[in-house]
Amino acid sequence: MIEIKGLTKSFGAHKVLDNITFRVEKGEVMGFLGANGAGKSTTMNIVTGYLSQDTGNVLINGIDMSEKPEEAKKHIGYLPEKPPVYPNMTVSEYLDFVCELKGVRLSGKAKKGEISEKEAHINEVCERCGILDVKGRLIGNLSKGYCQRVGLAQALIGDPEILILDEPTVGLDPVQIIEIRNLIKELGREHTVILNSHILSEVSAVCEKVIIINGGRIAAAAFTDKLIAEFEDVKRLRLRVQCSAEALERMFSATFGIEKIEVVSEEEGTTEAIIHTSKDLRSGIMSRLIEKNVAVKYFGIDTMSLEDIFLKYVGGEEHEGDI
Question: How many domains does the chain divide into?
Answer without folding.
Answer: 2
